[in-house]
Amino acid sequence: MIPKSQLAKLGLFDAKVPRYTSYPTAPQFSNDVGPDTFATWISQIPEDGSISLYVHVPFCRRLCWFCACRTQGTQSEAPVRVYLETLKSELLLLKRQLPQGVTLSRLHWGGGTPTLLSPAMIAELAGAIADVAPFGPDAEFSVEIDPNELDAPRLDALAAAGMNRASIGVQDFDDAIQKTIGRIQGYDITREAVDMIRDRGVASLNADILFGLPHQTQARMTESVQKLLSLNPDRVALYGYAHVPWMAKRQQLIRSEALPTPQERLALFETARKLFLWDHYSEIGIDHFATKQDGLTRAQQMGRLRRNFQGYTDDTSDVLIGIGASSISRFPQGFAQNAPATSAHTGKIRAGSFSTSRGHQFGGQDAMRARMIESLMCDFRVDGSEITRRFGIGQSDLNQMFDKAQQEFPGILTVEDNSLFIPQEARALTRMVARSFDAYDLSKAGHSSAI
Fold it and tell me: Phi/psi of residue 143, each to 5°?
């Protein structure tokens, strides 16, 4: 690790930068992309091709204070039932537009809390999706699961629908921290959920844990990670808590003075990172870890690791279609986002139209810079030969881009064999290095801390 004094000089502890789960990032989207563009892009998917499908369920029984996702609370099943009907109508619109023979390479239900759906609703939604496109070979169906909203009938319905990967948000197991962030989820109920998932033959388990939460210390971080490791997850996402109360009003319930400093955040990350490595997990990108047998590890070894709105993935499909309010779709032509508000999304779907409200159509150097940034985020390098071959940029122009990055990080980045590298000891700077290849104005976007 580079000394903290040098990291501070380079601006790590002050910078606010994108997470680069897309390029351009969502703040650059405009209303130039609407339902007609979205429908056209769907129709241009090759016949017999493959797509990924993301289904957003925005409802939660309770709203966790730390969460910045588009969610809404409900204590009854009624709004969930209405929303399910909207999803089914939206899927029917998709089916009418989708070319023949398309299959699913990945299916992910996110939220919110998808496990708020009753067993009958789970079966209905799964059936509606199967009617649009069947699973392809080696398809993966993952679901975000809240252990507080889980029982045997729901799990039976998910397993019957083909779920083969479950994702559990842990955040932190410390009781005091859970109370501070409005997320009460004890170790015992999490352990029980994991056992129930495994008992139904779901072999793959993801888990999320956060660093940078209020009152977190290295000792508390160590205890939470060790408890998580006892659950034997196949993948772990170690995300930095993004405190953005100007965007997520519920975060105003979390006192800013209780948050760790950027320097303390880095120490928390390093503490967790060492524990995962000591337990023989592979380090995947900037914030994921996976077992040696997991698909992410194999993808990294083969140079096929990708990054999307859910983080790192081994999905090879070029198309990700988002279903539900606020969902974002990715095509070779650009990005398209559904109306964020559930009411607006529902209104558009009921009127027989997709709800696409904004997006971005690739132009200029977008595709090239997207690939360079993804390469940095996944592999910590940019292969200059690949870039010149795929995108037709001249070697002198590429060299200028490499020179600019090296000037911003003097003595840190190296260029060898026409490739730019971020060394192991400087990987805390990865998002900042990626920013040097971002051609858009980032000054107006409220991004999260670089660490």
Answer: -135, 135
Phi then psi for residue 70, to 5 deg, are: -80, 95
Q: Output phi, psi for 14, to 5 deg.
A: -115, -20
Q: In terms of pTM, does the model score above 0.85?
A: yes
> Of 318, 290, 337, 342, which is closest to residue 25 (Cα–Cα)?
337
Residue with tokens 């995108």, as numbered in its chain: 391
Distance CA 302, CA 378 (A): 12
Contact 251, 196 (CB under 8 A): no
Is the confidence at residue 1, as pLDDT, over 80? no
Residues 143 and 114: their CA atoms lie apart, in Å, by 7
Q: Give Cα separations from 348 to 84, 89, 338, 359 (angstroms).
A: 15, 11, 10, 17
Query: Tokens representing 51?
Result: 């797509």
Q: How many CB atoms lie within 10 A of CB 347?
A: 14
Distance CA 359, CA 41 (A): 12
Which one-letter DSSP state was computed for residue 445? S
Measured at the CA of 40, the angle between CA 319 and CA 305, to 5 degrees, comes to 10
User: For 273-308, what is each residue's pLDDT tens digit?
Assistant: 999 999 999 999 999 999 999 999 999 999 999 999
d(CA 357, CA 186): 39
